[in-house]
Every structure is written in structure tokens, then in C-alpha cells.
Amino acid sequence: MHLQGAPPSLIPAGPNHPTARVKKRSMIRATMDRPGSASMTRDIARKNRHTRKGSIPRPFPDKDHERSKGEHPMSLPVVHHPDYHPETPVDERRFPMDKYAHLSRRLQDPSFHGRLDWKTPSPASREQLLRAHDETYVDAILSLSLDARSVRRIGLPLTDSIVRRALASCGGTILTTRLALERGLSVNLAGGSHHAARSQGAGFCLFNDVAVAALDLLASGSAQRILVLDCDVHQGDGTALIFAGDPRVFTVSLHCRTNWPLEKPPSDLDIELEPGSTDEIYLEALGAALQKSLPRARPDLVIFNAGVDPHIEDRLGRLSLSDQGLRDRERLVLETCARNSLPLAAVLGGGYGPDPDVIARRHMIVFETFSGFASARASSDV
Q1: 25-33+74-381 CATH
Q2: CA–CA–CA angle 130, 131, 134 (5° rounding)
Q3: Which DSSP state fits 27?
Q4: How many other β-carbons are positioned within 10 Å of the β-carbon of residue 286?
């Protein structure tokens, strides 16, 4: 593997990470697009043991956290809203909207063994949207008056229920990030609309929920620095554009080099994978990205886009991750954040194919992994 400025050993050690270094190093290309600041040789754990001046506490999760009524110490906070499943029919061949309903049903089925703490968000307000998006664009969406060309670029019909879904998704990610700061770990059953830029939506994304949530936290003072870790197979172009030049948010995108979008504006760290990259190659690249970005970002919170479209059977993916590869990815992100006492908020991201229930089963992996960790962590604190 070749990553600019990286030391020889990149993958966090541990028996649960089957991420031995591989020979096909040429399949990974990484680009650093903004000037570096912190040295890669700094010890991440040492840096994060000491709270920076003015920074917020970092629970993950805190056994002394004062739980609200009905909150179980071993439960994983998950955020869901009925509007995640819009009434407007969409072309399921292009975007499997039904996967959200299948996922919700699977998580509520008695056969799911994780303990979940269900939360319902308030839809994002116009004021919250305007922190990330242009006023003219926001008002055109809210009034259903966006021009036809822009609607085609988004790829979804512009209807009241589709807009309500976008507002609920943004509100869901706002709540998810706040829950992560309070309890260390949380997941939104939607979100990851990373192609929406300030004045234009694209790729099934009306509003950029991660950007809306991050800027809401920064505006309120709940966080001062945020790391966005985007593991969707498509580059997070909208997120990169929104946060270009903003030192408070460090953007990382791990994606397929040849996949959409064709024009990829620079993130703070872009890791480009060749088509067909397998579990081992992907996990090595992710470990390198975490090792390189954490000292530079020095975040109070990590927002993780857990898209499952890197899967080998994804219709739009072009990479070759297995189910186990996705599971190892979630564990690597989770354990790295836990080891560095970093709150972690996850959003669903992409996943495409003819059967929405198959896609939902892949999305289940992040809930299985995170809820298992929450349960084990709480048990160890008893």
C-alpha cells in the first residue's frame, strides 16, 4: 500500500482485525488534497487521553451517564421517523426506497437479539438547513418549485412526502449526533445524503444531512471539531464542497476510483480504490485512513457513513466486499473510536439492488455490530 506520509504499520493491532497486509498494493491510490498539519508519527491514543482546551468531554459510553426514563444501560440508541418511508412511489430499480421499511421491520423482529433504544427526531428546520444550503435552493425545495432540470439531477420526484422524508432524515442525523455525544454511540436508520451540495441536490440526495447536523453542532457549541468518515462506495462530493476551507470539519472519503461522480472535488483525505478491491485491500485502506486522519482532525465526534454499496453484489458498487468484510469494517471503525474515546454517530448511506430486503440485511450489519458492542461495554462496566 502507498499512502503519502504513512508509516510502515497502519492497521490497529488486535485479534479481531483480520487485516493482514496484502501484496496487491497497486489497487489502492490515496490522495491528500489539502496541506497537512499534524504529523503521522504522533501517537493517537496519547493525543486523545488529554482534553484540548475548550473541547467537550468524550464519552464512549460513560458508565456514569445519567440515563433517561426507560433507557437501558445495554441499549444502542437508534433514530427512526415514519417519514423515512415516503408515500410517493419511486422507481425501485434505480433507488430501493423500500429498504428502509424492510430494515425497520427486521430490527423490530423478535429474532433480532440486539437491544435498541428507539428515538424519534423532529424534522430539520429551515434555519438548520440554511447552515449547509443556499437559501434560494432550500426555499425552492420546501415550496416544491425547484426547476425540472435540477429535479432530474436529484433523481427523485419532488413531492411533499419526499421533502418530508428529507427533513426527517436531516433531523434524524442531528439527533443521532447529539445522542452520540451523550451516550457514545448511535445510529440513524436513514441519512448519508452526501451528494447534496450547497445549492444543488444530486444522486437521490435533496439535503446533505451530515453537513446539516455537523453545522448544527458547531453552531450550538456542542462540538468544536468533527471528523466525517464516508465509507459509501461513491465519493462524498457534496460534503467535500460544503466543508471546503472549513478547518472545523475534516472530511474523509473512501470510495471506488472509477465510480460516480465523475468530477470528485477534493476532500481533506480521499482514498481511491480500484474496481474489484477485496476485503483485505479495503480494510487496509480504511485502517490507513483512520491512522492518518485522526491526528489531523482531532475531533470531538466522528460521523460515519456506513453505506453498504461497496458490497460485491451491489448493483452500483464496483468493489468486492463480502458480508464479513462489511462486518470487519464496522468493527474497525467502532473499536478505533472506542480506543480513542471518540463518540461515534453512524448514518445508513447507500445500498442498491433488485431486492430491498437483501439490501436491508446488509444494513443490519452495522446495527448488529454496534448493539453487540454497546451490550458488551455495559456488561464490563457493571
Answers
A1: 3.40.800.20
A2: 45
A3: G
A4: 24
Asked whether 210 and 347 are in contact (CB, 8 A), the reply is: yes
Length of the chain equals 382
Report pLDDT digits (tens) over 334-363.
999 999 999 999 999 999 999 999 999 999
Neighbouring C-alpha atoms within 13 Å toward the C-beta of 263 = 4
Q: What is the pTM of this model?
A: 0.84
C-beta of residue 13 within 8 angstroms of C-beta of residue 305: no
Query: Which phi and psi angles does 282 have, rounded to 5°?
Result: -60, -50
pLDDT in tens, 230-245: 999 999 999 999 999 9
Q: 347 with 190: CB under 8 angstroms?
A: yes
User: From edge to edge, which strands make up the β-sheet containing 28-32?
Assistant: 28-32, 269-273, 249-256, 226-230, 301-305, 344-347, 185-188, 76-79, 116-119
Angle between helices 160-183 and 209-220 (to 10 degrees): 50
Instruction: Label residue 278 exposed, middle or buried (CB < 10 Å: 0-12, 13-18, 19+).
Output: middle
